[in-house]
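Subject: for your reference before the review

Hello V.,

The reviewers asked for a structural picture of the protein, and I figured it would be easier to keep everything in one thread rather than splitting it across files. Below is the amino acid sequence we used in the manuscript, unchanged from the supplementary table.
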Amino acid sequence: MKNVITCSIVDDEPDAIDRFTSLLKQIPSIKILSADTDPDKAIKKVIELEPEIVFLDVEMPIKNGFDVVEEVRNQNFNPNFVFVTGYDKYAIQAIKKNTFDYILKPVDLDELKEAIKKHISAKIEKANFKLSNRVIKKYSLTKRETEIIELVVQGKSSKEIADLLFISKHTVDTHRRNILHKTNTENTSRLVSLIATLYK
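And here is what came back from the structure prediction:
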């Protein structure tokens, strides 16, 4: 089961979800945890189920795809977001939001497989990630804060980090707030972007 990649789908059109689900089912390593047409329900499920990838539409009523990304990240969870949309006009905004990938409808199976491969490569790279002493000193990070940043970069949620470090989720969240303050970043997404730029 370690090779299984979990995902959630968010699209306001049931037919689009059905089509996308049928494509994902052709990729053996994929396990679909949830599929929702209601953005609010989708946000709750993503936070609860913690999928590795969230495939989502951009144009949806009430809340669009960018709103979903923002609300999930505000809950200290940062999966790989992949926009699946019929419009290429959102590409620049998606890049600025630091989303993982962008696929145009109608979705091509080979293009979808490439997105999955890209996710796997990034996952392996993150798993081997270690903060350099230069960065630790630059932001005066404690040993615990260093551990937490490394796990955040790997995509771990506060709950997962708490379990791995044998501390409470509340303690993890407190450390995360301190880290954001020290690095002058407003959320997890900005923190990960900052770390990425320091290693370029």
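For the response letter, the relevant points are probably these. Residues 5-126 form a domain with the Rossmann fold fold (CATH 3.40.50.2300). The longest strand covers residues 30-36.

Happy to draft the paragraph if you're swamped.

O.
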